[in-house]
């Protein structure tokens, strides 16, 4: 009876360790957006390289939410999506 519980705990531990990417998000106000380079500058002077996640248009003053992927302490791995609030 203890073996199924032990094996379930081992499987759960490996599943937790094997998931390297996490999603997180930030909300802020657009200061500027360059559609040619897909570079977004927020009002707090944070610069985001949006890549393919960039909406067709972003205008100064709009509130946006950026959902990005991170690898824990290894930093940002990419922007998943950008939504205008």
What would you say about this model in short?
The protein has 85 residues and is of the alpha+beta class. The chain has one helix spanning 2-17, and strands at 22-34, 39-42, 47-49, 63-70, 76-84. It is globular and about 30 Å long.
Describe the protein in words.
This protein is globular. 9% of the residues are buried. With 85 residues, the chain is of the alpha+beta class. Residues 13-20 have low confidence and may be disordered. The protein has one helix at residues 2-17, and strands at residues 22-34, 39-42, 47-49, 63-70, 76-84. It has a 5-stranded antiparallel β-sheet, with no helix packed on it. A hairpin with a 5-residue loop joins strand 4 and strand 5. It has one domain (20-84): OB fold (Dihydrolipoamide Acetyltransferase, E2P), CATH 2.40.50. It contains 1 helix and 5 strands, in the order αβββββ. Helices cover 19% and strands 44% of the residues.
Features:
alpha+beta, five-stranded antiparallel sheet
Summarize the helices and strands and which ones pair or pack.
Layout: H1 2-17, E1 22-34, E2 39-42, E3 47-49, E4 63-70, E5 76-84
Antiparallel strand pairs: 1-2, 1-4, 2-3, 4-5
Cα(first) to Cα(last) distance is 52 Å
Number of helices: 1
CATH topology type = OB fold (Dihydrolipoamide Acetyltransferase, E2P)
How many domains? 1
Shape: globular
- CA gyration radius, whole angstroms: 19 Å
Corresponding CATH architecture: Beta Barrel
Q: What is the chain-wise order of helices and strands? A: HEEEEE
Determine the mean pLDDT: 80
Spatial strand sequence of the major β-sheet: 3-2-1-4-5
Strand content: 35-45%
Q: Let me know the number of strands.
A: 5
CATH class: Mainly Beta
